Amino acid sequence: MTRRPPHRVAVVGAGAAGAFFTLELARLRPDITIDLYDQDSRGPGAGIVMSTDFMEQVRRTFPTAFAVPDTAAGRWDRTLTLCGDEHIWSGAYGTVGLQRRVFHAHVRRLAESTPGVRALRQTVTELPDGPHAPDVVVLADGANSRLRRSRHKEFGTRVTAGRSRYLWASTPIALEPSFVLKDLHPGLLTVHSYPHAADESTFIIEADPTVLATHDLDHRPLPEIEKALAEIFTDTLRGTPLHAQTAGWQPFRTIVNERWHHGRSVLIGDAAHTVHFSTGSGTSLAIDDALCLAGALAEAATVPEAFDTYARTRQPVIEAAQAEAAESAEWFETLCRANRTDGHRTVFALRSRRTLNTFERLRERDPQFVADTVSRLAGGPTTAEPHDVPLALGTLTLTDRIAQTNGPRLRPHELALRTTHGIIHCPVADNTADPDALRAAGARAVGLLLPQDPNPDEPAAEPEDTDAADAAARGFDFLAVPAQPGTGRISRTRRAGRLTATQQTLPVVLLAAEHLSTDEINTLIAAGRADMVAQK
């Protein structure tokens, strides 16, 4: 590798990542020659999404970056969720859908028309070599990057497939931006839909393999699957057809590279990392990668120094984004296996699957939606916060859904509950205890302490409602569920959320592993991740 600033750079792929890298490097270092390799290809997906805030930030440097025809874009500030018979609107705060092929053709033209850029329409199967070999080769050729795959050991590539299957499709109609939760026993078909043109929308269907197999939607020819899905969603699609943009059902594959550069090659965008489509952040992250790498190459004294700066800056950002995307993917995978939904609370859970969206933030930005959610929890109109909504627990009525633990956080021997009769201490016991004996000794309510899930990443082997019904039959009044190890809201409350969603026999108390703010507790209760929270 060269130990001097680069003079010649090759970019493989002219999608968003490759095009914006080319634009930025040519702007910062017009003395560098850039070879931009690309080929006309269809590629998966009909539309892409970005926030208006992000687009405005990019426009400050590249005013025409998003200057596509109005007919190739859709804009919205709220999203519709079709949940059973309910139509629930909630805010989306400035989101834009762009027709993928139009946008990519536009930014490629911008890059190719920049002085110092040579456009080459060809497939690159080996790193350019020879006397005029580039000092840097930027691999911006997407998740299926051939050059990265041929050097997967050098980059330390890991690919993890999700549980659910998805089909990315388009339909020739401008639909409302929406989520559709279609009950198709034994689970749900979940749709992510948004307009990306005046007469076309993206329509992504996600499902558990068991649901697909049950309804013979998995191994049929693709045209038959398209037709069957169009019939299932005929009301939403208003009779329009579906056109698959992927080869069939497939799991979402999360790509992680331990090392983002090797020799003179460097990864950006989907070639470096993927994030689940439910976060809508893949294109924005790719553009940020591109701008960061171009800036590092423009400023550093040597190519290795630039690569190190780039990786040091972007890898922590992507690790955080992938962790959040994993939480979002898990939430949808669990939803696809659900046997019931709960209107506004399900939609609130959808919105709050991302850590940023807490109860207070959503109430500030979308007060009517949050008020309706809390009213759903309370069984009628209320001004109370979720933790103040009364809860029946055995013969007691709680006036506050925040309890205090006595004993170890995750294995307390009793909880202090605020009730209409004042503070009452209730024992928490394991499966060997006799609730009747504890009640005879003076306990007003008895909780069953569940062990931590030994396989938290696996679906429950037995129905959770069976465990709750058995505990109720034995005389327990609530389930005490320890928080799971994890970094996000979904992973930490995995088992408590599953129990709260799948059974209504006993209240579920989440035993917090650390002190939680009232805002976080309100978020968990409103989202149905727990009925109440106990902490030190």
UniProtKB/TrEMBL annotation:
This protein's record includes keyword Lipoprotein: no
GO molecular function, one term: FAD binding
Residue ranges occupied by any FAD-binding domain in the UniProt entry: 134-322
Keywords, comma-separated and alphabetical: NAD, Oxidoreductase
Entries under PANTHER family matching the protein: 3-(3-HYDROXY-PHENYL)PROPIONATE/3-HYDROXYCINNAMIC ACID HYDROXYLASE, BLR0106 PROTEIN
Protein name according to UniProt: FAD-binding domain-containing protein
